[in-house]
Design goal:
The chain is mainly alpha-helical. The chain is 68% helix and 2% strand.
Length: 509
C-alpha cells in the first residue's frame, strides 16, 4: 500500500530530496525510504547520483547497502539512466563497490586493482548478506555492459577493460564472474575479439577458470565468453588447442549439469566451424600410450558418449550440429590441406567412431526443428560420399524412424501411425485457417518452408545415390531395390507405401 501511495502521488522525487538533504540523518530511515522507491521514471538523470553517493559511503551497513543497490537496479532498467551512469564514469564506482565488499580496509575510492585485495573474514550471516549485495551488483554491471553505450564509451584498450581482464585471474569467484559477463558483452565484434585473444590472451585466463572454478555460474559465463571469442576465424586455432579442449571435455565426461554441458558443446562447435586444426585435435587419441585403453578413444568419443547418456534434448541437438560441423569442415575444406591428409582424417573419423551418425539420425527423424533436420540431411549426404562414411549412414538407416524420414523427405509424403498423407496437406491446412487478407510474412514463411523441403529432398537423393555407389554391392537385394525404387519413383504415394512395407519386411527377417 505504501508503495502504491508513493507512486500515485509522485513522491519518489520528494523521497530522493530527503535522502540528499545533508541536514537529515538518513541512515536510520534508509531501509524504509529505499523500499518506497518503486517508480523512478519521473526522476531526472542526475537523480541516480544521490544513490551512488550513498553507495560510496564505506560505513554503510550491508543491509542498507543492499537497499541502495536494489534502488540502483531499478534505475538501470531505464536506458537514459544507463547512458548517464556510463557517460559520467559511474561504472567505476559500482566496480569499486564490488571490491569493497571483500574488505572494509579499502579506501573510499579504491583503484580497480586486485593485486592487494585482502578478503575480510565474516560470520555466516554477514557473508550471506554480502553475497546478496555482490549478486545484485553483478547484475547491474552486466546490464550496463550489455548496453550499446558501454562499448561506445569503453574501448578494448581502455583502463577499465584492462582492469576487468586482470579480474579474470582473481581467486574470488564473484569477481571472475563479473569480469566474464562484462567482457563477454563487450566481445561482440571480430576486431574486439581478435584484440582480446592476441593482445590480452584472455582465453588463457578463461581456461584457468574452467580448470579451477567449481561455481556453475562462473563456468557458464566463462564458456559463453569463450564462445564469443571463437567467432573470428583467426581465433579458432589459437583457442581450440588441446589445453582448451582438455579442460572443456571434463564437462562431457563427469558433469551432470545440462546447462554447462550444452554450453561446452556449443563452444566446441564454434571452435570447429571451418577450422581443420581443431578437428584434428578432437580426433587425437586421449593417451599417447598404446597400451592404455584411452589410446583407442578421442575427445570426440567423449562427445558421442555424452549423446548416449544425456536426456537433455538441447544438448543432443548441439552434439548433432557439432558432428555436422565436423563433416562439413572435412568435406568442404579449402585450407590447402593435402588430399591424402583429408582421406586419413576421414578414415580416422569413421574407424574410431562407429556411432558417429547417430546424432545426425536424431536430427533428421525429429520434426520439431526443420532447420535442424535440414542440417542433418546435408551432413548425412556429405558422410555418404566416402566409403567409410556410407557404412555409418547405412547402419542408422536400419532404424525404421530414420528410413521413414528418408522416404518422407524424398516422396513428400508424411508418415504417421495411420499410414500416409501428403506432406503439403499440412501446409494447406495452415492456409485454410489463415484470414482472407493474409500477410506477406506468412507467405514468406510458406515460401521458405517449400524451399527448405526442396533442399532436403535434394540432399536425401544425393545420400541415396552415394550409398548405392559406395555400398550397393554389399547391400541385400531388397535393400538395394528399395533405394533404387526410391530414386525412380520419388513422388509416388503408392510407391512410398510399398517402399516402407518392403523395408520393414527386410527388418523382420
Amino acid at each position: 500500500p505504501a508503495q502504491r501511495a508513493v507512486k500515485a502521488n509522485d513522491l519518489c522525487l520528494a523521497i530522493l530530496d530527503v535522502i540528499e538533504n545533508p541536514a537529515v540523518d538518513v541512515d536510520p530511515l534508509l531501509h524504509q525510504l529505499g523500499s518506497l522507491l518503486n517508480d523512478l521514471s519521473p526522476c531526472a538523470d542526475q537523480s541516480i547520483e544521490t544513490v551512488l553517493q550513498l553507495m560510496r559511503n564505506p560505513k554503510l551497513e550491508d543491509d542498507d547497502l543492499l537497499v541502495v543497490i536494489n534502488v540502483t537496479k531499478a534505475f538501470v532498467q531505464h536506458e537514459r539512466f544507463q547512458r548517464h551512469l556510463v557517460s559520467q564514469g559511474s561504472v567505476t564506482t559500482l566496480l569499486a563497490c564490488l571490491l569493497r565488499s571483500y574488505s572494509s580496509i579499502l579506501s573510499e575510492n579504491p583503484s580497480l586493482s586486485i593485486t592487494h585485495l585482502r578478503v575480510q573474514s565474516r560470520d555466516p550471516e554477514e557473508e550471506h548478506q554480502i553475497s546478496l549485495v555482490r549478486t545484485a551488483l553483478i547484475q547491474i554491471l552486466s546490464d550496463l555492459s550489455a548496453a550499446p553505450v558501454f562499448s561506445e564509451t569503453y574501448f578494448v584498450n581502455s583502463s577499465l577493460i584492462n582492469s576487468l581482464v586482470q579480474w579474470l585471474s582473481s581467486s574470488q569467484d564473484e569477481i571472475r564472474h563479473c569480469a566474464c559477463l562484462m567482457l563477454g558483452n563487450v566481445a561482440r565484434s571480430d576486431e574486439v575479439c581478435r584484440t582480446m585473444v592476441t593482445r590480452y590472451q584472455v582465453h588463457e585466463n578463461l581456461v584457468g577458470i574452467l580448470r579451477n572454478s567449481s561455481e556453475r555460474q562462473v563456468i557458464y559465463a566463462a564458456l559463453g565468453f569463450m564462445k564469443n571469442l571463437a567467432l573470428p576465424s583467426e581465433n579458432k586455432s589459437l583457442i581450440g588447442v588441446p589445453t582448451t579442449i582438455g579442460e572443456v571435455s571434463r564437462f562431457w565426461a563427469t558433469d551432470t549439469d545440462p546447462q554447462i554441458q550444452h554450453a561446452s558443446i556449443s563452444l566446441l562447435r564454434q571452435l570447429l566451424n571451418g577450422c581443420l586444426a581443431t578437428v584434428q585435435w578432437l580426433l587425437a587419441s586421449l593417451s599417447p600410450d598404446q597400451d592404455s585403453p584411452a589410446s583407442e578413444k578421442t575427445y570426440l568419443s567423449l562427445v558421442l558418449l555424452l549423446f548416449g547418456r544425456t536426456d537433455d534434448i538441447s544438448t543432443k541437438v548441439a552434439i548433432g550440429r557439432t558432428v555436422a560441423t565436423i563433416c562439413r569442415c572435412i568435406s568442404t575444406s579449402s585450407q590447402g590441406v593435402p588430399e591424402n591428409a583429408i582421406r586419413a582424417m576421414l578414415r580416422r573419423l569413421y574407424s574410431v567412431h562407429s556411432d558417429i551418425a547417430r546424432p545426425l539420425a536424431m536430427m533428421v527423424s525429429q520434426s520439431r526443428f526443420p532447420i535442424i533436420r535440414s542440417e542433418g540431411w546435408f551432413a548425412l549426404a556429405l558422410m555418404a560420399r566416402s566409403r567409410e562414411g556410407s557404412a555409418a549412414v547405412s547402419e542408422v538407416l536400419q532404424q525404421v524412424e530414420v528410413f521413414g524420414a528418408l522416404v518422407s523427405t524424398i516422396t513428400g509424403q508424411h508418415i504417421n501411425g495411420n499410414g500416409y498423407e501428403a506432406r503439403n496437406s499440412q501446409m494447406g491446412e495452415a492456409d485454410s485457417n489463415r484470414p482472407d487478407s493474409g500477410s506477406s510474412g506468412s507467405e514468406t514463411r510458406s515460401e521458405q518452408a517449400t524451399e527448405m523441403q526442396s533442399r532436403d529432398r535434394e540432399n536425401a537423393l544425393v545420400l541415396v545415390n552415394e550409398l548405392l555407389k559406395n555400398r550397393g554391392d554389399e547391400m541385400s537385394v531388397i535393400r538395394r531395390s528399395v533405394l533404387e525404387d526410391l530414386i525412380r519413383r520419388p513422388q509416388s504415394q503408392t510407391g512410398a507405401q510399398d517402399l516402407m512395407t518392403r523395408a520393414q519386411s527386410e527388418e523382420s527377417r
